[in-house]
Amino acid sequence: MNNSQTIESRTTLNGVDVTALGEACKAIDQDPALATFIFRSKNQWLDGGHNRSTIEGYYGVGLDQPRKATFVMDADEPEILLGCDRGANPVEYVLHALAACVTTTMVYHAAARGMRVDRVESRLEGDLDLRGLLAMPGAKRNGYEKIVMKMKVDGDGTPEEWAEMVKFGQAHSPVFDIVSNGTEIDVQFEGA
Questions:
Q1: How many distinct structural domains can be found in the chain?
Q2: Exposure string (b/e) for 111-140, b if CB count within 10 Å is 16 or more?
Q3: Within this chain, do residues 124 and 67 fall inside the same structural domain, yes or no?
Q4: Tell me, what CATH number does 150's domain have?
Q5: I want to staple 46 with a disulfide (CB 3.0 to 4.6 A). Which of 31, 50, 111, 133 is the partner?
Q6: Which domain holds residue 66?
Q7: HSE (CB half, 13 Å, CA atoms) of 155?
Q8: 52 and 124 both lie in a single domain
Q9: Cα–Cα distance for residue pair 14/16, rounded to 1 Å
Q10: Same domain assignment for residues 82 and 167
């Protein structure tokens, strides 16, 4: 199966419009302000551990940008953690975000390098001590103590090239950076 196609002199590889990617890089090089994006989420508590986030738009390339669809994500806790299991729990969403971002980063850069991707799979595990959440003594921290991510990649590169691309995806993934380096978070109480 050939993942590369030319339509109106645009090249697509791995589902990535490589022509548009190159044009975007050139535009940002000429006007770095175009690289500033602000992503937004609204969250509402529903009951117990159940809450819902809504994603509707973002700011990018100098303008507020609407989404084609509103994305709704429910979070809850499994029953053993006193929830009703109506969605992945928040720390599972972190694993999803990490896998999705490292994968996307790697696939985009592989496309830019002309490398065809046939398959990417990852498995993630995060070690968490519940005592941190419960404000009990003994936990080293509230969040994951360690995350292990194992990736399998198939395509037209050698195993060494794919290992390098996985490292490149990790090195340039925004979510990997957020999780591994921490990000300043300013939580503000706005009243009722």
A1: 2
A2: beeebbbeebebebebebbeebeeeeeebe
A3: no
A4: 3.30.300.20
A5: 50
A6: 36-87
A7: 26
A8: no
A9: 5
A10: no
pLDDT band at 78 (very low <50, low <70, confident <90, very high): very high
Rounded to whole angstroms, the Cα distance separating 168 from 148 reads: 17
CA distances from 90 to 30, 40, 54, 96 (A): 39, 17, 14, 10
- What tokens were used for 56? 């509707």
Quick one: angle between helices 18-30 and 90-112, nearest 10? 90
Nearest residue to 124 (alpha-carbon basis) of 155, 146, 154: 146
> How far is it, in rounded angstroms, from Cα 171 to Cα 177?
8
Is the pLDDT at 5 greater than 60, yes or no?
no
Question: How is residue 64 written in tokens?
Answer: 């507020």
The one-character DSSP state at 137 is T
Instruction: Say if residues 102 and 150 touch (Cβ distance below 8 Å).
Output: no
Q: Which of 17, 52, 87 is the last residue of a domain?
A: 87
Question: What are the structure tokens assigned to 91, written together?
Answer: 């720390």
